[in-house]
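Field reference: sequence -> structure
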Amino acid sequence: MIHIHEKTLQDLEFQTVLQQVSELCVTPLGLEKALEISPYKNKDDLYLSLQLTNEYLSSFYNDNRIPNHGFDSITKELKLLRIENTFLEVHSLKKIVSISITVNAIVVFLKKFEEYYPNLNAFASHIEVTKVIIEKVDAIVDRFGDIKDNASNLLFDLRQSINKIRGKINSSFSSALNTYHNLEYLDDIRESVVDNKRVLAVKAMYRRKVKGAIMGGSKTGSIVYIEPETTLQYSRELNNLEYEESEEVIRILKDVTNFMRPFLTLLSDCQNLLIDVDVISAKAKYAKSMNAILPKISEDKSMVLRDAYHPLLYLNNLEKKEKTFPQTIALKQDSRIIVISGPNAGGKSITLKTVGLLQVMLQSGMLIPVHERSSVCLFDRILSDIGDNQSIENHLSTYSYRLKQMNYFLKKCNQNTLFLIDEFGTGSDPELGGALAETFLEEFYHREAYGIITTHYSNLKILANELPHMLNANMLFDERTLEPLFKLVIGQAGSSFTFEVAQKNGIPYSLINRAKKKIERSKVRFDATIAKLQKERSRLEKTGQSLKLNERKKIEEADKLEEINVKIQKKLESYQELYDSNQRLIYLGQKVNDIAEKYFENKQKRELMAELFKVVQIENSKRKKVSAKQKKVIKAKETQVKQEAEKKVNVIRKKKKAEKQKAIESPKPKPILKIGDRVRLEDGRAVGSIDKIEKNKAVVNYGMFTTNVSLEQLELVEAVKSK
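Structure field:
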C-alpha cells in the first residue's frame, strides 16, 4: 500500500504542477479532476495510468490522432433523469446527443487502432456504442433546436391550425386597418405592437367608435392602442391552440426523457470517460511541453535518473529563454543514501527537489523529463523536510519543528521509504545538532531506507565516507570565479568555500584571517583540502568535455572518410565493368583478325562465313534480353563511365606528356662510359659491349660485327662490374 504524506506534496510544490496540468484541460470537469490528482495507492492502477498517458502522448507524433473529446457537462441532466416525471428541455437533449456522438467516435477509433492504443482501447471498451439515443432525439428535434412539426400527428395538426389562424388574424387586422384609416380614426403611425400583438393606433377622440379591446395608450394620451374585435376572436382561438401545442411538446419531451432513463448508467459512464480522457490528454500535453517520457520501472530498488530536469524550473526558464541544467543521480542498494554538500546557491536544494518531485509525479501517473536510458522504482513512502518550518501558530522554533519531523521519520522509515532532507541538522548548536543529525542518519542507514540530504556539517560528510552504502556528493563550482556550475558530482564531499566566498564579496582579508585563527586548524585544513579537490574535479570536468568534443570531431571525420570510400568503391566497380567490356571487345577483334588472316590465306568464303556466324552465335548466347528502356539506361551508364574514365586518362596523358617534355628540356647528365659497358644506340634496339675507346669514339662489338660510334650517340644499358 503506497502512502505519500500531504506535507511532502506541499514541500515539493506538487500543487503547482497540478495547476499547470489543469490549465491544459478543455472542460471544467476535467480541470476539477486534474487538480485532484494524487499519488496512486495501488501499483496496478499506477501502471495503467502511466500507460494511458504514454499512449496518448504517442498520438501527438503519429498520423492517428485521437478524436476531439470536448463536451458540455450533463451533470444536471443526469440528476433530472433520476427523478420520476421530470423531462429534459431541447438544449439538454442536444447536449446528450453531442456527448453520445463524441464518445462513439472515440470508442470506435480506439477499437480500429487497437494496435497503437491497446490500453486506451481496453479503458474505453466498457462503453457500448449505441445510436438509438441520437436517432430518437434527431427524430423530434431539428438542427435549429426546435421540435419538428412531424414529431407527432397531433402536433402536426395543431401547428397547421395555428398557421391558418395566424393567417386569419393578419387578414382581419389588415381589413380593420384599411376601414378605420379611410374613416381617418387612426394616427399617422397607423399601427403598433403590444404584448406581441398588432394593434391599431387610434386617435383618443375616436376610441369609442372603434370596436375592440383597449391594450394601452401613448404617454401623452393622444393615442389609444386597440386590438380590433374580429382579430380579438381569432387571438383567443390562437391562445388556446398555442396552449395545446405547448402541452403536446411537453408530452413529446417526457416521452423522449422516459426513453432515455434506462440509459442513465451509460450516459454517466460516457461523461466519466470524457473527463478521464481530458485529464489523460492534459497530462500528455504537459509531458510533451517538457519532452517527458515513461522510463523503465525496475522491480528491484534501484533508481537512475539521467539528465533529469525540475519541471517547474524547466518550463519557467523555457518561457524566459534561459538554460536549465539537468542532473544525473542514482540511488541503488549499494548507494542508498547521498549526502550533498557545498556552498549555498549551488543548486543542492534544487537537485533534492528534482528527485522528489519527479518521484511524486511518476507515482501520480505522470511522465517525467529524463533521458530515455533512465530507470525508476516505486517507494511506499516519500518523507520530506524542506525549507524553513518555523511555526508561529504552534509556538515551535525551527529546531523544535525539525525534531518533531525526525520523530515522525523514525516511526515511518523502512527499506521502502525515500527521505529527502534539506539542510539536515540545522537550527541548533552546530556541535550538538551535528551529533544528533549523525545519529539520525545512522538510524536511517541501518533501516536500509533510501534518501538524499543536503548539509554543511563535516561529521555527516565523514560518516558518508565511512559507511559503504552511503555516498558523498557536491555541486561543482568554477575555481576562479566561484560561480556555480549546477552540476552534481558523486563520490566527493563539497567544501562550503566559506572564506573564499567571503573574500569574493569584499570582506577585508584581515578579518577573514582573524576568523580562521578562531577555529580549529584541522577544520580549516580539512575544508581547504576539500576546496582544492573540488577545483581539481572542476578542471578534470573541463578536460573531459574537451576530449569528448575531439572524439566527436574524429567520429565525424571517420564518417566522411567512410562516405568517400563507398564512392571510390562504386567507381572502381564501374571501371572494372568498363575494363571487362573492353577486354571482351579486344578478344572479339583478335578472333575476327584470325578469321580474316585465314581467309587471306585460303580464300574460302563459306568457311569464313561459318566461322563468323559461329563467333556471333557464341556471343549472342551470352547476351540477356532487355527492353529498349533498360538498354537505354545501360547505354547511358556505360557512356557516363566511359566519359569519366576518358577524363581521367586524359589527365594522366597530359601529366606524362608534361613529364616527358620536362625530361627533354632538362636532360639527365650522361654517365661516363668505360670499356666493357653494355650499350646501345639512342634510337636502336641492338645491345653490344665496348671493346675500345679512342678520341670520343667507341668500338662496339655486336658479336657478329663491330662498329665505330660516337660516345654521345650511345646509351648505357649495363655498366661493367668492377672486380
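Note: The radius of gyration is 50 Å.
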